[in-house]
Design goal:
disordered N terminus; Rossmann fold; 12 helices; 2 domains; 22% strand; six-stranded mixed β-sheet; alpha/beta; globular; transport; single chain; four-stranded parallel β-sheet
């Protein structure tokens, strides 16, 4: 009798262990799907799902465990983003989370990950503070940070001759971090260039006449090359600034990269140069080839800026789970620190000190005659990760 009981108990234990192992991998994807950055959020979601598909060869499973993605809309609101992440960890019992679109919302989410002892992969928010002074050990970021944007922009500035730069940025964490990072990057790799004026405008600004006049006044009498560097998310102010004819003062405009619909206005300004996180025609690797072909087939358009970011976050998650042998948080952290993983941009590596993904950027020039609406940019140079000495800003 005791033998039968022992055998039955052992069998039950095996079944229980098997069932536990076979439980779904739950991932929360939090994004600002309502509001002015809706397009960014939708691209992140599309890229994340396509990334999971590619990396699991269509099975949507890792090591026999199905992946269940729970999508939540934080509406770009910091308080809501915080609440949704708390719900994801505690009510939905997710193993890890991805998010979010707004830097302010992402910053609100960071302590929630620490309080719950669960991994948060930040994508696509870029404020330096996320992997800087507000960082904690549960935070990993596949998105580039403001400093990586800044090093890209700095690398696109001529390396000789006097260069005076005025910045136009949004008046919140993204814009302010971006300007501070640009100043530091210029000092590091382009000491011949200086930011001589900073202009900040509301996120929803539509009239830039006063801002442009202040910028023109600050630059017009400077010797050498004069550049307006625009750091902006959402509806781009480039046409409004260009309509005020900065060229009459010898002033050029250098916009950052953006999503394709926003960059389509660039074609009116051929020869304009800047730096971009991703443009579908630049990376040359099998993963990007698949993404470009499949996205074109499914959406009748090439993949965009944040599509690649979502795909990268999926790659980080899948690679980490495989390397960790499951979803235990401490094993994930151990696996992810220093981990290199493939993305449509090529390999990224999570730096051990702050979990920021080190990655390439691209120096572009606007084409004179693209073959269609999305054929916009020529590659001037790939800026390797090791040529961007991103400082570690946390207190680990």
């Amino acid at each position: 009798m005791r033998l039968k009981f022992t055998i039955a108990a052992a069998a039950a234990g095996i079944l229980f262990a098997s069932a536990a192992f076979a439980q779904d991998i739950k991932i929360a994807l939090i994004a600002g799907k309502t509001g002015p950055l809706e397009a960014y959020a939708k691209q992140t979601e599309a890229g994340f799902m396509m990334g999971l598909e590619y990396l699991t060869k269509g099975t949507m499973a890792v090591d026999g465990r199905k992946i269940n993605v729970i999508v939540k809309d934080d509406q770009l609101k910091a308080d809501l983003a915080k609440t949704l992440l708390e719900q994801a960890y505690n009510d939905d019992n997710v193993d890890l989370a991805i998010g979010t679109t707004s830097s302010a919302a992402a910053l609100a989410m960071l302590p929630v990950a620490e309080e719950n002892g669960k991994v948060l992969i930040v994508e696509p928010a870029v404020a330096d503070a996320i992997t800087g002074e507000k960082w904690n050990r549960f935070i990993f970021r596949t998105a580039r940070n403001s400093t990586q944007d800044a090093y890209g922009a700095a690398a696109a500035v001529p390396a000789s001759g006097e260069v005076s730069i005025a910045t136009l940025a949004q008046d919140y964490a993204f814009g302010k971090d971006g300007v501070a990072a640009l100043k530091n990057a210029l000092a590091e790799i382009r000491p011949n260039a200086k930011v001589v004026f900073e202009e900040y405008a509301p996120q929803n600004a539509t009239d830039f006449t006063a801002s442009a006049q202040r910028i023109f006044d600050a630059l017009k009498d400077k010797p050498g090359k004069k550049i307006i560097n625009i750091i902006w998310a959402g509806q781009h102010p480039l046409p409004k600034i260009a309509d005020l004819k900065p060229e009459r003062f010898g002033i050029e405009i250098a916009p950052g990269g953006n999503i394709l619909p926003a960059m389509q206005i660039y074609k009116n300004y051929p020869g304009m140069e800047g730096a971009v996180y991703y443009y579908y025609a630049f990376p040359k690797n099998a993963m990007n080839d698949w993404l470009v072909a499949e996205h074109q087939k499914r959406y009748n358009a090439p993949p965009d800026f944040f599509t690649a970011g979502g795909f990268a976050a999926a790659s980080a998650a899948v690679t980490a789970i495989q390397k960790a042998g499951g979803t235990d948080t401490e094993k994930l952290i151990t696996a992810m620190e220093g981990m290199t993983f493939e993305t449509p941009k090529g390999p990224m590596t999570f730096r051990k000190e702050d979990h920021q993904a080190l990655q390439e950027m691209y120096h572009f020039k606007v084409k004179a005659n693209g073959k269609d609406a999305n054929d916009l940019l020529d590659l001037v140079a790939t800026i390797p990760a090791d040529k961007m000495p991103i400082p570690v800003r946390n207190k680990r």
